[in-house]
Amino acid sequence: MGSIVRTRRDMSARVCTPVPGEVTPRGTVQGCILPLRPAPARTRTPPVHFSALTLARNALSHHESWPQLWRSPAPRSSYDVIIVGGGGHGLATAYYLAKEHGICNVAVLEKGWLGGGNTGRNTTVVRSNYFYPQSARFYDFSLRLYEGLSRELGFNIMLSQRGIINLAHSPHQVELLARWANALQLNGVDGELLSAAAVRERLPLLNAAPGARYPVAGGLLQRRGGIARHDAVAWGYARAADQRGVDIIQECEVLGFLREGDRVVGVETSRGCIRAPKVALAVAGHSSVLAQKAGFRLPVTSYALQAFVTEPLKPVLDCVVLSLATGTYLSQSDKGELVVGGGLDLYPSYAQRGNLPTLQGVIAGLLELFPCFSRLRLLRQWAGVVDVVHDSTPIIDKTPARGLYINCGWGTGGFKAIPGGGFVFAHLLATDRSHPLAEPFSLRRFATGALIDEAAAAGISH
Amino acid sequence: MLRIRCPWCGDRDEPEFRWGGEVPIVRPGPPRQVSEAQWAEYLFMRDNPKGWVRERWVHALGCRQWFIAVRNTVTHEIRSTRRIGDPLPELDG
């Protein structure tokens, strides 16, 4: 298959050497390779290629001899790039820095455990049915990366493109969906309008009784939308970045920044000071907290976004369903649990738990759509702290503090953007220029007025 | 479920209230002398603190009066609520 790309590392020069046949890194890296002391010798087992054969071989030893997917090194005193935040975006950024730009002397600092923030708290939906061209280009790029990711990382992210259906409950909503479907097709993204009959056929459990509170009037289907295994995305990127020499350091909280004049030259952490000429933030709901430590503010408000899962069922739902009117959406996981999400809690919060009134509202919406789920019990409920921006469009840019870069503003939809976000953020870090796909996602837009108001246009229920 | 003390109506349940943004936010002026950056700061940039914050709330399903609350964004504890027009409460104390 050739799906795992390995690199040999020249330990003294601390640059990556691609193996023959690999796409060579672009020659755009400037000023990032520092003269450093030789790296300490590391013991590393070669990466496992997951296959039926290795699975069978490890079964003979009761699956007790699989190697660790990544090392847990102690932080060194300096790196070329420090990425703060070991979630999907941080890890993907590290991976693409190494793979696309040959910058492997990178540390990813995570205050908790890898993928334990929003990467482990989302509802795993991937889609690219955005309204505006700037968003559609970016999110479709991200979805295309997802489509090849299992093979690229040699790690099954369990992408299931089962389709996502947005429901319309009135003729007016059907008109909005028609406008939306037209925009998708103009943007080159797949999207098609479904009749009420087609929706009922695809979703037989949906409440289509004559007296239904939310009658079905139609739907918008993106066939390439679906779900992926969120942990596997984090683990796959972590393993691939680690193989290329990236240090992933967990339980290492960033407490402040090291400054030289107006430049950020490193971070002060719970495990000591670490220096780097470039520091990148990928910390979602905590972006404002770190920005404040660096002396500037962001157009971000942090909210709790809840989700919950029911007890497992036999297969009852083979696509992702989202209702504009009730603000509820759901899918069925491969384990059989219904994964349900809804709108934001109604006031800013850094608590990863969510409040009861919002949970009740989401459940009420769920049961209006699917009355047959009323006897299900909830197994787990949780919340993530999301970084909401006024126009629901991300920020990938340099910051007012020189040497400090930021990737934030994904709000309620960061998971689907992980591959694309990591790719364009790595480009910004390596070249000091925005990737063409990320140029509209600047911090400047809040002064110039070039906002991309996806909140209204894409019908996101927040 | 939070219980929030409306300065006019007393303790009521959370769904009766709406959050209305952090305070104080002072409009810059006069308009001709305000730069784009200052407008952006006024319109969009927020402290968004982790911890205690002063906020405007409205008792939307009650007396419909706005008031000021001092709330913790981690614990959701509301330390005090005051009527608009009362002196703005200090954050530390």
Kindly summarize this structure in a few lines.
The complex is a heterodimer of chains A (462) and B (93). Chain A has 462 residues and is an alpha+beta fold. Chain A is 27% helix and 24% strand.
Overview of this structure, please?
The complex is a heterodimer of chains A (462) and B (93). Chain A is of the alpha+beta class and 462 residues long. Chain A is built from 12 helices and 21 strands. Chain A has an 8-stranded mixed sheet, with helices on both faces. A 6-stranded mixed sheet of chain A has the order 10-4-3-14-21-20. Chain A has a 3-stranded antiparallel sheet with strand order 11-12-13, with helices on one face. Chain B has 1 helix and 6 strands; from the N terminus they run βββαβββ. The interface between A and B is medium-sized, with 23 and 27 residues.
Task: Give the secondary structure arrangement, pairings included.
The complex is a heterodimer of chains A (462) and B (93).
Chain A: E1 7-10, E2 15-18, H1 52-60, E3 81-84, H2 88-101, E4 106-109, E5 125-126, H3 133-147, H4 149-153, E6 164-168, H5 171-186, E7 192-195, H6 196-202, E8 218-222, E9 226-227, H7 230-243, E10 247-249, E11 254-260, E12 263-269, E13 272-275, E14 278-281, H8 287-294, E15 300-310, E16 320-323, E17 328-332, E18 338-348, H9 356-369, E19 378-389, E20 395-398, E21 404-408, H10 418-431, H11 445-448, H12 454-457
Parallel strand pairs in A: 3-4, 3-14, 4-10, 6-16, 14-21
Antiparallel strand pairs in A: 1-2, 5-9, 6-8, 7-8, 11-12, 12-13, 15-18, 15-19, 16-17, 17-18, 20-21
Helix pairs in contact in A: 2-7, 2-10, 3-10
Chain B: E1 3-6, E2 10-13, E3 18-22, H1 36-43, E4 52-58, E5 66-72, E6 78-83
Antiparallel strand pairs in B: 1-2, 3-4, 4-5, 5-6
